Amino acid sequence: MDKRFVYADNSATTKISKPVLDAMMPYLTEHYGNASSIYSLGMDSAKAILKARETVAKAIGAKTGEIYFTSGGSESDNWAIKCAAEVGASKGKKHIVTTVFEHHAVLHTCQYLEKHGFEVTYVPVDEMGLVHISDIEKAIRDDTCLVTVMFANNEIGTIQPIAEIGALCREKKVLFHTDAVQAIGNVEINVAEMNIDLLSMSGHKIHAPKGIGAMYMRAGINLPNLIHGGAQERSKRAGTENVAGIVALATAVSECTKNIAEKQERLSKIRDRIIAELTKIPESRLNGDPIKRLPGNVNISFRGIEGESLLLSLDLEGICASSGSACTSGSLDPSHVLLAIGLPHSTAHGSLRLSLSDENTEEDADYICEVVPRVVEKLRAMSPLWERILRDEDIDAE
Amino acid sequence: MIYSEKVMDHFANPRNVGEIPDADGVGEVGNAKCGDIMKMYIKVNDGIITDVKFKTFGCGAAVATSSMATELIKGKPIEEALKLTNKAVVEALDGLPAVKLHCSVLAEQAMKAALADYYKRQGVDPALIIGDLGASDVCEI
Q1: To which H or E segment does residue B116 belong?
Q2: For B35, which of A327, A330, A382 is closest by C-beta distance?
Q3: Is A386 in Cβ contact with B137 (below 8 Å)?
Q4: B28 SS3 class
Q5: Cα–Cα distance for residue pair A365/A318, rounded to 1 Å
Q6: I want to staple A176 with a disulfide (CB 3.0 to 4.6 A). Which of A15, A156, A165, A169 is the partner?
Q7: Any bridge partners for residue A285, and if so which?
Q8: Is B62 close to A346, i.e. CB distance below 8 A?
Q9: What is the C-alpha to C-alpha distance for residues B27 and B41, in angstroms, rounded to an integer?
């Protein structure tokens, strides 16, 4: 098969789509007005922001006034968690419930709060990568001010029982935040029906540019600001609006939520074909639930090889992917997500995440299925660990 | 993170990969938990390292440093190989990202472990010649 270029790392970031680029371009060129200005050039920007807010709100079942534009997923997560904690503390509630496998934007924010007198319960996930509602229920206390659980996991793609958690939190009268950065456009989201109080989203995961995101905050919650300054975003988030980014985000949200069922069907078919082919490789395993899973997420571990060299080898073949190995996580340990679902370190090091988007085709899948087994075999041939696995030694005893 | 062209070359086309079935010395360092293991085989004749092969489980830098280390000692007298430092391996690769420097240390240790094994097989206490290998069970970045 001829060498191709296959971008299969859409959970890391995505290419800006043509409709998004077309929609935002006028706001980078002729419509450069500050939305706070009174003249018509400024008013054009203000109108574009209003329209964008309506679009984003409609896509997730929110009211227009419940959407606030931010710089991205990390800012939205920080805002939701730190400021819900601040409100909680003022009422003597200094306990937060989250899960062990959240994105670092949530985990590290919770750890920061722990250093500032808050208590955090990290609810476990099962070996399929799913949170159990009973574990959340057990973790909620009288002094819990916030429950934050991601909608879909960024590494293994598992989709969490968000509506159930939402209903539970509403009943217990605890604020509920969800990081929906990976979920939006892949799963139907209705914040009202799902009893979600706070939701984070990001533009660059859905074919909008980096540096733009939004937070949904249910009317009446009224968290304090994270970013103080001017009166933008109804005085809730200061900083001159990134008009082009906001228009891009709204266009991307509108595009990706248009035909979710159709997308799920098309992508999950490609996903399942890749999973079926790659798990034929000996000593491999699928990480995460096979069904309750993002339509474009493949996460497979191959024993006896290390993730970074797998990625570099795939890159030489034109495939962009990611891994949960320590080498690519920038820390001593492999991915906290893979460890949380019970993988031994050695197996977590050899993980491969492929994340597909609308841009990926059946031909991309053919190419992946042809290249990955060959590369795994090549790396295993030079791996002293693979020798030991073949000899049936217990490599995780150390 | 950026790898030099030399690192990528030694990763994509590693030199001296494999095993030596009748090796005179074999050394293995690292562990599965940390995500890197290097195994080095040497053949010695008249005090000269006539052949060297390696197998590595690890990241791109681990493969490249193993490959470069074998290149640097192949055909050299043992005394010269013993002087090889991780720094020389890094320099020969036109540098490594800071978080990958430990891979070069591992490559030096793997080579020294193979030489230690060689001395042991000769009935010589390797500690007297090579000293402490400095191998540790703690993962490093």
Answers
A1: helix B101-121
A2: A327
A3: no
A4: strand
A5: 13
A6: A169
A7: A301
A8: no
A9: 7
Identify the residue whose tokens are 């053919």. Answer: A366
Q: Please, which residues bridge with residue A351 across strands? A: A301
B33 contact residues in A (CB cutoff 8 A): 345-346, 396, 398
pLDDT for residue B115 is more than 70: yes
Q: CA of A343 to nearest chain B CA: how many angstroms apart?
A: 11
Contacts of A41 (CB under 8 A, 6+ apart): A31, A32, A33
Q: Which residues, other chains included, contact B12 with Cβ-Cβ below 8 Å and sequence gap of 6+? A: A312, A316
Average pLDDT over residues B71-97: 96
Confirm or reject contact between B98 and chain A (CB < 8 A).
Answer: no
Token pair of B72 as six digits: 């640097």
Pairing state of beta strands A284-286 and A297-302?
A: antiparallel
Q: Is B67 helix (H, G, I), strand (E, B) or coil?
A: helix
> What is the phi/psi pair of residue A377, to 5°?
-65, -40
Q: Is B15 on the interface with A (CB under 8 A)?
A: no
pTM tops 0.90, yes or no:
yes
Q: Is the pLDDT of residue A329 over 90?
A: no
DSSP state, residue A225:
P
Residues of B in contact with A345 (CB under 8 A): 32-35
Interface test with A, best of B59, B96, B140 (most A CBs within 10 A): B59
pLDDT digits (tens, 9 = 90+) for A243-283: 999 999 999 999 999 999 999 999 999 999 999 999 999 99
pLDDT score for A388: 94
Going by C-alpha positions, the residue among B45, B43, B52 that lies closest to residue B18 is B52
Residue keyed to tokens 């007298």: B77
Per-residue pLDDT at B19 = 97
Distance CA A254, CA A267 (A): 19
Q: What is the ipTM of this complex?
A: 0.94
Q: Does domain B5-123 have CATH number 3.40.710.10?
A: no
Parse chain B into domains and list their residue ranges. Answer: 5-123
